[in-house]
Design a protein that fits this description.
The protein has a seven-stranded mixed β-sheet with strand order 5-4-8-2-1-11-13. Strands 15-16-17-19-18 form a five-stranded mixed β-sheet. The protein contains 19 helices and 21 strands. The chain binds ligand BES and zinc ion. Zinc ion binds next to helix 5. The site of ligand BES has 15 residues, from strand 18 and helix 4.
Length: about 600
């Protein structure tokens, strides 16, 4: 049997385990292969308007279906002729299906449109919400299924497109994308971009603001608002080294440059791995490079996620579990095993908490998820991240690091620019690693079973043992640890110290600790957030509520918001939580408000 390249490309989507329940697209019939995007950003009206043109591939299909949500479409053309399109279904999570009729030889389609106020991907910030407070700012967040709120597209991680874009912005602002970028502003406010490699639509990203560029190394650099640039370049000074270490581990970096943009504090995530240009929260700028494992994480996605992409959001662990594993290997190569072990132990604690929260028998603790009918955001738990990473560590411990590294390098090389389902990965693992070595292991239990399997590897850390001892001595007889000891503690040791405090300690203890270590005033966002959560849980918070409020108003990172609002709620003080949220909400991106609305307003 012979098949054309088109047929074989399209037919891969027919497999049952590749069915993406979060997209209306029917890729086995017709797919978009390249996007030409042309948009103007209107900061007065807070809309993006223009057109999206696609090259398409099909075998005589009579229509192509795109995902759209909250877009105002004015016209659709196919090969330059206006056509009658239809918009079907209206799902609160998935949005709608844009059906466009095709002829057997149709090659190109163009959608003329504008975004609306409800574009969930896009956050329009006033000048006051930025670091320099002089100019407005815009950024988009596509993952998981929000790109369809600013670009009509086949919004499925199993579908890949290359893109070119032309973005017009007001004078004084600069646009950057997950593509080739310039490093300076230009006079006419029109910026052109090219992403040659095919990427899933969730990785298309745009940021517009008063930006400056600072070089870190030959292939790496930072975009930030002018007042943050110097600090950011220092904080991320090891990026070039990380990139080289990552290549030493798993093969060449295939995206040319690796830059990071520091966004305003409302960015709902720590980082987002938009190719060539990671989007990052300013809350990782601690002044001492102590939170840069996040950069290692987003960089690692340049292999796991961006080269080899989860086929559907049910396979999310293939993106995040691999990335946490890879991130830890980069940190080990950079700072040594002792440092990496502290990070993986904190990860193991996160995993235990997550399993407890979700319930040890919950299906949401399986690596392979079933998110049909739900928001894919529901799958964004530490299961994908930490159970996924620990699964890979378990395999590594059985086959040995050398073999496992060789396996992973080949995996990335052979599957680059493709998507991967969980079943495909299982088959790949069996064929290329387990069977040749005559090994069997409980992969089924890890992937399709609940909770934490018995053979989950847990690192040990002398440094953490010392932290635990210091804390228990302090709690038992009030002896504050020696300054000589704590002066050398890293952020991770402090985090472990704070996390190890029981939920029902006396609030006096918090007062003593706070007087000695000023956790409430910490400039390190991870330490501050961990401290505030413990403090609320232990009833030491009316004293410091103004600081907690300041933090919640200025930071929009969901990972910090959820535990703090939840702790207030669980303490029976939902009123305080709601009052703060009422003031803070306008600073949050839709990703965060959706979660906080569900937590606080139901
Ligand atoms: N890709 C994720 C962020 C994400 C996941 C956005 C799912 C939307 C849906 C990113 O790589 C990530 O995992 N960020 C983490 C940091 C990381 C060090 C664990 C974050 O933002 O906290
Ligand atoms: Zn990630």
């Amino acid at each position: 049997m012979c098949s054309t390249p088109e047929e074989s490309l399209l037919s891969q989507y027919a497999a049952a385990d590749r069915k993406d329940t979060h997209s209306y697209a029917e890729p086995s019939k017709a797919i978009c292969t390249h996007l030409d995007l042309s948009l103007e950003a209107d900061f007065e009206k807070k809309i993006l308007h223009g057109s999206a043109s696609y090259d398409i591939m099909h075998e005589g299909a009579d229509e192509i279906i795109l995902d759209v949500k909250a877009l105002g479409i004015s016209k659709v053309t196919v090969d330059d002729n206006e056509v009658e399109y239809s918009i079907k279904s209206n799902d609160p999570i998935k949005g709608s299906a844009l059906h466009i009729p095709l002829q057997s030889n149709s090659k190109k389609l163009t959608i003329y449109y504008s975004t609306t106020k409800s574009a969930e991907a896009v956050q329009w910030l006033e000048a006051i919400q930025t670091a320099d407070k002089k100019h407005p700012f815009l950024f988009t967040q596509g993952q998981a299924i929000l790109t369809r709120t600013w670009i009509p597209c086949q919004d499925s991680p199993g579908i890949r497109i290359s893109y070119n874009a032309e973005i017009k912005v007001p004078p004084a602002l600069m646009a950057v994308m997950s593509a080739s970028n310039t490093t300076t502003k230009n006079a006419n406010g029109v910026y052109s971009f090219e992403m040659k490699q095919a990427i899933p639509p969730y990785l298309i990203a745009l940021a517009i603001g008063d930006l400056a560029f600072g070089k870190v190394g030959a292939r790496t650099g930072v975009y930030a608002e002018p007042s943050l640039l110097k600090k950011s370049v220092y904080e991320f000074g090891e990026m070039e080294k990380m990139l080289e270490l990552a290549e030493d581990l798993y093969g060449p970096y295939l995206w040319d440059r690796y830059d990071v943009i520091v966004l305003p504090p409302s960015f709902p995530f720590g980082g987002m791995e938009n190719p060539r240009l990671t989007f990052a929260t300013p809350t990782i700028i601690a002044g001492d490079r102590s939170l840069t494992s996040l950069i290692a994480h987003e960089l690692a996605h340049s292999w796991s996620g961006n080269l080899v992409t989860n086929a559907t959001w049910d396979d999310f662990w293939l993106n995040e579990g691999f990335t946490v594993y890879f991130e830890n290997r980069i940190m080990e190569a950079l700072y040594g095993k002792e440092y990496a072990d502290m990070l993986s132990l904190l990860g193991h604690q996160d995993l235990e908490h997550e399993v407890k929260d979700l319930g040890a028998h919950s299906h949401d603790t399986h690596l392979k998820l079933n998110l049909n009918g739900r928001n894919p955001d529901d799958g964004m738990t530490d299961i994908a991240y930490e159970k996924g990473a620990h699964f890979l560590r378990m395999i590594e411990s059985k086959v040995g690091r050398t073999e496992f590294d060789a396996f992973l390098s080949t995996y990335f090389e052979e599957n680059k620019f493709k998507s991967m389902s969980t079943t495909e990965f299982e088959a790949y693992l069996a064929k290329n690693l387990l069977e040749p070595k005559g090994l069997t292991m409980n992969t089924q239990e890890w992937i399709y079973g609940p909770g934490i399997p018995k053979n989950c590897p847990v690192s040990s850390s002398n440094k953490f043992d010392i932290v635990e001892k210091s804390l228990s001595t302090f709690i038992e007889n009030g002896t504050i640890p020696e300054d000589d000891l704590t002066d050398n503690w890293t952020t991770h040791e402090w985090l472990h110290f704070i996390r190890s405090i029981d939920k029902d300690e006396d609030s006096k203890l918090f007062h003593v600790l706070d007087t000695k270590y000023s956790f409430t005033q910490s400039g390190n966002s991870e330490i501050a957030a961990a401290w505030y959560e413990k403090a609320i849980q232990n009833g030491y918070y009316t004293q410091i509520i103004k600081d907690i409020e300041r933090f919640l108003i200025s930071v929009g990172r969901r990972k910090f918001l959820t535990p703090l609002y939840r702790a207030l709620k669980e303490k029976g003080d939902i009123n305080t939580a709601r009052n703060i949220y009422a003031k803070a909400k306008q600073n949050y991106h839709s990703v965060s408000t959706q979660t906080m609305d569900a937590l606080l307003l139901d």
